[in-house]
Amino acid sequence: MAIITNAPKGTKDVTPGESYKWHYIEDTMREVCAEYGFREIRTPVFEHTELFLRGVGDSTDIVQKEMYTFTDKGNRSVTLKPEGTAGAVRAFIENKVYAEAQPTKMYYLYCPVFRYERPQAGRLREHHQFGVEVFGAPAATADAEIISLALRVFEKLGVRDLALNINSIGCQKCRPAYTERLKEYFRPHLSEMCEDCRRRFDMNPLRLLDCKVPHDAEIAAGAPAMFECLCEDCAAHFKTLQEMLTALGIEYKINPHIVRGLDYYTKTVFEIVSTHAGSQGTVCGGGRYDRLVEEIGGPAMAGVGFGMGMERLLLVMENQGVAVPEPSVCDLFFCTYGEEARAKAFEFCNVLRREGIKADIDHCGRSMKAQFKFADKLGAKFVAVIGGDELEAGVVKLRNMAKSTEETLPMGEFYERARQRKL
Question: What domains, with CATH codes, occur in the chain?
Answer without folding.
Answer: 19-174+230-319 (3.30.930.10), 332-419 (3.40.50.800)
